Amino acid sequence: MANAPSPPFHESVERYFRELQNTICRALELADGTATFREDLWQHPSGGGGATRVMERGTLIEKGGVNFSSVTSQLSSALAAKMHVPAQEIVATGISLVLHPASPMAPTVHMNARYLRLESGDAWFGGGTDLTPWYLFEEDARHFHRTLKAACDTHDPSSYAKFKHWCDEYFFIRHRGETRGVGGVFFDYVRGEPDRTFAFVRALGDAFLPAYLPILERRRSEPWGPEEKRWQRIRRGRYVEFNLVYDRGTLFGLETNGRTESILMSLPPEAAWEYDHEPPAGSREAALITVLRQSQTWI
Amino acid sequence: MANAPSPPFHESVERYFRELQNTICRALELADGTATFREDLWQHPSGGGGATRVMERGTLIEKGGVNFSSVTSQLSSALAAKMHVPAQEIVATGISLVLHPASPMAPTVHMNARYLRLESGDAWFGGGTDLTPWYLFEEDARHFHRTLKAACDTHDPSSYAKFKHWCDEYFFIRHRGETRGVGGVFFDYVRGEPDRTFAFVRALGDAFLPAYLPILERRRSEPWGPEEKRWQRIRRGRYVEFNLVYDRGTLFGLETNGRTESILMSLPPEAAWEYDHEPPAGSREAALITVLRQSQTWI
After folding, report:
1. Could you give the C-alpha distances from A39 to A58, A206, B45, B47, in angstroms and in order?
2. Are B53 and B66 in contact (CB under 8 A)?
3. pLDDT for position B5
4. Residue range B115-133: average pLDDT?
5. Which of A86, A225, B7, B262 has its CA 20 to 30 A from that of B51?
6. Cα–Cα distances in Å, from A230 out to A226, A268, A271, B229?
7. Residue B6: left if φ>0, alpha if ψ -120 to 50, beta else—which one?
8. CA A102, CA A116: separation in Å to the nearest integer?
9. Does residue A2 form part of some domain?
10. Based on the structure, what is the number of domains in chain B?
11. In terms of residue numbers, what domain contains B270?
């Protein structure tokens, strides 16, 4: 089955993800104005491959990766057991991005959309996007959520609430008692009618740039100094903790011998760990933590 | 059973770990000459607690932690299943240290010794120590291993080879195909005759300072600049990857609601991730990688 032609539906999903990668990379290069994406094409040992695009040391983006992949692999019995299915072949195609802006005033963002298909024929979509500010600008969180809600509403007016809640639960750093950031939407194992679900995934994918770019622009000239950069590094440490301890996509990739550099492009350019760092009461840094410690309503 | 008095053997193990913490901290403060350890006493929600000592921004030690703990907790059914025992109470006491020197020429070091006792009465020792250089000085690796071998030999002349091999297997960053460093010794589930095993653990604990301090002193005046510091940060990123993805002690601590700041004191003060960083062929940085990619004999 590894070399069997993909069904037309699968191909159109793949084509959309590739086009989205192009659109997003072009827009980011324009916004950044200095750095450009470098592309690495790679092959997976068990079939398929991907195109990893990374931008480093830009004016706005200190490090950013936008990955496309389409990989065939064999579910190990351990992974299959976790997914409550027999061990078999799995085909996964998706786009995955993480952008780490240079300015501590601009939030880090993640977006992912994927389509998985088992040898058994079972297939589903998953994905999501979440915003991780280091300093809280409520209007940024509201703009991000409002844009995502509008995309969700085109699909099902109840979906935003459900996927927003799922996002808060998923991007939770249990050992810190904090969410990774101000959330967004997250969904997995969405089966439903394929064309309709795909339309929803496209709506969300297309919403990424309008949800994030205005925030990046808005924070472009916000002043900051070494103390804000230090705080950003400490908080980026929390981002690393989430990705390496809890993120299912990262661990799935590492366990299935995915391309390490493509999986770990999500890690920040720099991170710091200071023992028992606590921002002073009443500070902007402390205000962020308060917000991350209990679920917020942004709309 | 949580409040039952500890058996005398358990108490003497605990006392040794506390004394070792004192001895090591005093020696490190003397060696550093600037920074001193700050101590935080803490209690575990389910019983017991610990003393975490951390030193930051020293002349030699950029960040170092030396923890003592003695904790009673309930094994979750998931953890019990992993350990192939029924869910029950577990008492764990131990010392755990990680030192991150400021100079990229001086290696990071880890040491841990622990004694675990199940409600069922089953009890065992575990522990080990390993060295993680950023630049390879073969005489440092040899000195470290030679000192550990001498300590092992007092116990059982075959133990060094066994525990050295176990260390290479344990401190392996699978997704990078690299060991964390040049190894040392690692052991777990060592039951045997309690007094004899404890004597072995003491021999290894007492070997820590003679194994590491001379290396720290020897690299004190080795010159380095921003490029070496950058390399150290990149390699420290690999250290983070190991600790958060694979280290059983770290994951066990986080899963059993251990004190996060005490568990994660092992993380470096700063780390960096550059996309697909490869040191130039023939460089000192490339020479290190070569050594980490296949098991070495140091004695």
Report:
1. 16, 22, 49, 53
2. yes
3. 57
4. 95
5. B7
6. 6, 13, 9, 17
7. beta
8. 34
9. no
10. 1
11. 8-292
Which of A102-116, B80-94, B159-173, B285-299 has the least mean pLDDT? B80-94
By CB neighbour count within 10 A (0-12 exposed, 13-18 middle, 19+ buried), where does A251 fall?
A: middle
Calpha distance A288→B30 (Å, rounded): 39
Average pLDDT score over chain A: 94
Q: For residues B128 and B186, is the Cβ–Cβ distance under 8 A? A: yes
From chain B, the residues in CB contact with A289 under 8 A are none
Q: 3-state class of A180 per DSSP? A: coil
Structure tokens at A124: 């589903």
pTM: 0.95
| B175 near A CB under 8 A | yes
Q: Which residue type occupies B144?
A: F
Q: Which runs of consecutive H residues, i.e. helices, occur in A246-283?
A: 248-255, 260-263
Q: What are the residue ranges of helices labelled H in chain B? A: 8-32, 77-82, 138-153, 159-170, 194-218, 226-245, 248-255, 260-263, 284-292
Q: How far away is chain B from the Cα of A156, in angstroms, using its nearest Cα? A: 37
Residues B166/B295, Cβ–Cβ less than 8 Å: no
In angstroms, the separation between the Cα of residue B290 and the nearest Cα of chain A is 18
Residue B85 contacts residue B120 (beta carbons within 8 Å): yes
Domain membership of residue A141 (yes or no) is yes
Token pair 């994918």 is found at: A205
Does B1 map to a domain?
no
Q: Give the contacts of A137 (CB within 8 A, at least 6 positions apart).
A: A105, A215, A218, A219
- Spatial CA neighbour of A155 closest among A98, A197, A112: A197
- Choosing among B108, B178, B276, which should be mutated to test the A contact, i.e. which has the most A CBs within 10 A? B276
Q: Quote the DSSP letter at residue A41.
A: E
A275 to B251: CB separation less than 8 angstroms, yes or no: no
Say yes or no: A81 contacts chain B, CB-CB below 8 A.
Answer: no
Is B117:B126 a contact under the CB 8 Å cutoff?
no
CATH classification of the domain holding B100: 3.40.1500.10
**Do A254 and B54 count as a contact with CB atoms less than 8 A apart?**
no
Q: With contacts defined as CB-CB under 8 Å, which chain A residues touch B176?
A: 260
Q: What are the structure tokens assigned to B170, written together?
A: 């344990």
Annotated catalytic, A110?
yes
* B299 lies in some domain: no
Q: How confident is the model at residue A4 (pLDDT cuts 50, 70, 90)?
A: low
* A81 confidence band (pLDDT: 50, 70, 90): confident
Residue A218, CB half-sphere, CA atoms under 13 Å: how many? 14
Sort out which chain A residues have CB atoms less than 8 A from B54's CB and list them.
275-276
Could you give the CA distance from residue B184 to residue B127 in angstroms, rounded to a whole number?
Answer: 11
Taking CA atoms, B138 is separated from A66, B141, B214, B276, B287, in Å, by 40, 5, 14, 27, 11
